Structure formats: structure tokens, C-alpha cells
Amino acid sequence: MTPVPASPFRLDNHRILVTGGGSGLGLGMARAMAAAGAAVLIVGRNPDRLAAAAEENGPGIEWRVHDVTNLEATPAFIDSVESTFGPLDTLVNNAGIHLKKPATEVSDAEFASVLQTHLHAAFALSRECARHMRERNSGHLLFIASMASLFGIPMVSAYSAAKTAHLGLVRSLAVDLGAHGIRVNAIAPGWIHSEMMHRALDSDPARRDKILGRTPLGRFGDPADVANAAIYLSSPAGSFSTGVCLPVDGGVSIGF
Known about the structure:
Blueprint: E1 15-19, H1 24-35, E2 39-44, H2 47-57, E3 61-65, H3 74-84, E4 90-93, H4 108-136, E5 139-144, H5 157-177, E6 182-189, H6 195-201, H7 205-213, H8 223-234, E7 245-248
Parallel strand pairs: 1-2, 1-4, 2-3, 4-5, 5-6, 6-7
Helix pairs in contact: 1-8, 3-4, 4-5
């Protein structure tokens, strides 16, 4: 049997890469994972935002500029991370963009752009990380899915297609890579307190009430709720979990 550490939810000696880590849920996960003992590398396109995030949160968080949609640069980027930051234990595929408009008004270019960021980029990063992880017979790939992965939400057809595809990747990669000691999981956040959520709901009380009305816990979540789920799945406590999509949603995905 694998020995169980005294604190199985700790991430000591783990190296973790978080895409889209300069703000929002990505930064929340990075901050919590660093507090749990991990060395965390946040990645994004805005150097000022990344530098400020790393400085604000102190030791344990480093940053690097990288555009995840530049697929041709992905192999060299991951090779560089592995050689300079260190061997990765977990990749968190968090980077994303949003597009909200009726499906009949979504252009081919807009649809492709959303899939490029959420799906193609996440696959390319996971593939390259897995090539290194299988040599060590250990690793974890974590996808940040969505309620749009689980049920129909109007006005977000491209986003829904990409986030639903994440779950297909999670299942397939978990089977492909399990023999190499690599686990693959997803978290599907519900409605979580954030600047973006409040911008959308504070001026739309009817929509806010509709969401809360189908949420069994009757409240919105906190970024820490998602971060704690990420720690669990990435830590020794989650060592026998793979192919899982864990909703962190107050029950909204099963509510009525």
C-alpha cells in the first residue's frame, strides 16, 4: 500500500502550473495551492497583471508570459517550464474566454476562437505535460469545466461546446494515461462570487433570483470553494480519483 502522509491534503514539494492564473478563479486556486505548500507558476498574456498577482501573494507563486492559443509554441514552452521551474506535478487548464450572444449571430471565427482557447490549447498543454509526466509515472491534469458542461445555458453556444468537450477529454485522457500513473479530472464551478458574476447579476435581480431558486444551498459560492476542490484532487487525498468531474455548485446541477 502507498503510505498516507500525515496531512494528505497538503501539496508540499508539488509544482503546479495554472493557466489564466493572473486573476479570478485561476489566481484563487494558485493562492490556495501555494498556501498548501506547492510551488505555483501562473501563466497568462498580461505581464503587469501576472507580476502584480505574484508580488501580492508572496513566496510560492512565480509567473511567466505565454499565450496558450499559440499551439506551435506549446511544446517548447512546456520543455522550458520543466527545465527551469521544475518537473510539473499538476497542470490546471483554467485559461478561457467568454462569448455571450445568440447562436445565430456567432460567426465561424468567433466559434473557432473560443474552441482554440478552451479546447485546443488545453489539449496541447495536457499532451505536452503528459509526455514528461509519463516518464516519472506520476502527474495530474485538471480541467476547469463549467455548468455549461452539464446542461443547456442560452446565449453561450461556443462556450458550451468547448466546456462539454472538456469532459470528453477528461474521460478519454484518464483512460489513455492511467497506466502511466497520470490522473485526469475536472471541476465544474457553479455561480461563484466574482467581479464578473456581480457585473452580470447585480443589475439583473430576476436572473439572480432564478439561479438561487434552483440552488439547493440557496447561496452563491466563494472562490475558496473551487480552490479547495482543486487542492483535494491534486493532493495525495485524491490519489485514487481520475476521470471525475466534480461540481462545486451548491447543488445547482441537481436542483430544480
